[in-house]
Amino acid sequence: MVGLKPEAIMQALEPLYGRPENRPSGDPVAELVLTILSQNTHDRNSGKAFVQLLTTFGSWAEIAMAEEAEVVEAIRGGGLAQQKGPRIQGALCGVAQRTGGDFQLDFLRDMELEEARTWLRSLPGVGPKTAACVLLFALGLPAMPVDTHVERVAKRLGLVPGKMTAEKAHAALEALVDPSDYYRFHMLLIKHGRRICAARKPACPACPLRRSCPASETR
DNA sequence: GCCCAGGTGGGTA
DNA sequence: TACCCACATGGG
């Protein structure tokens, strides 16, 4: 354990990556679909699959009602299409069922945060990370997405125990970080984690976190 | 040709 | 509860 506090970590990383500002996107359903497509997939692939999905079908309703094979074909370029196609269709159907046919998630704003999170997680293909992405990025609600980068960096910095499971680490980090800083914390750790992965260096001499930086981790 | 990417869900002990 | 593993494509 190195005893670094979240605020100190964010202050150290901001000179490198800038200060992230959350501007909630307009369409939570688009965020939901895009996040499912991005699961364990590189951004460039998931982004292409998302564009292809939107150009192939004219609306969320069409995607939900389409033959599964058509949806799978549209998102093939994103990888894991056999899994993600049915999950996207199932999630869209879940949304429509809840709203009586509308493809929108504004009703989540009227729920308690944990109720909204639980409802999202009841959809196929929606786990803790995807639910948090929709709540934070699209609706501007205080949930923190914890992906592999955030989890790995946070464990290395001693914010959470290294042996903690991903789901517990998620809850622990949400408790540790001020809710108004969720977006800032998430984005800074993502950027730092990506840089570490991209560099694949045994050490990161420029890192402001120095010895406590995950970049000193030998992979 | 190999490696990796912003998870999830099912199976097993 | 805690692991382990399959899932699949494109670009470096």
Describe what you observe in this structure.
58% of the residues lie in helices and 0% in strands. The chain has 219 residues and is mainly alpha-helical. The chain has two domains: 6-21 and 146-216, Orthogonal Bundle (Endonuclease Iii, domain 2); 28-138, Hypothetical protein, domain 2 (Endonuclease III, domain 1). Helix 5 (68-74) crosses helix 6 (81-99). The longest helix has 19 residues, at 81-99. The chain is globular, with a radius of gyration of 18 Å. It binds a DNA duplex (13 and 12 nucleotides) through residues 35-36, 38-46, 48-49, 76-84, 87, 124-130, 133, 145, 147-150, 165-166, 186, 190, 193-194, 197.
Concise overview:
With 219 residues, this protein is mainly alpha-helical. It is 58% helix and 0% strand.
Please outline the helices and strands.
Blueprint: H1 6-17, H2 28-38, H3 43-56, H4 60-65, H5 68-74, H6 81-99, H7 113-121, H8 128-138, H9 148-156, H10 166-176, H11 182-199
Helix pairs in contact: 1-11, 2-3, 2-6, 2-8, 5-6, 7-8, 9-11
The chain binds a DNA duplex (13 and 12 nucleotides) through α2, α3, α6, α8 and α9.
